[in-house]
Design brief:
Length: about 55
């Protein structure tokens, strides 16, 4: 029983770590996207972002 629980937890942990790694990769890609740059610039310039050109 202990071995079964340990194996199940190990699989869950591995799946969680893989999902977090994938999420981090996606987040990094989005952070440098043109949309993100527009959002950051708009925030610093205290204006509404204009995402119309990205549609």
């Amino acid at each position: 029983m202990r071995l079964s629980k340990r194996l199940l937890k190990a699989q869950t942990r591995a799946m969680t770590e893989a999902a977090l790694a994938a999420e981090l990769r996606e987040f990094r890609e989005r952070l440098v996207s043109p949309e993100a740059k527009e959002a950051f610039a708009a925030f610093l310039e205290k204006r509404k972002p204009d995402f119309a050109r990205f549609a």
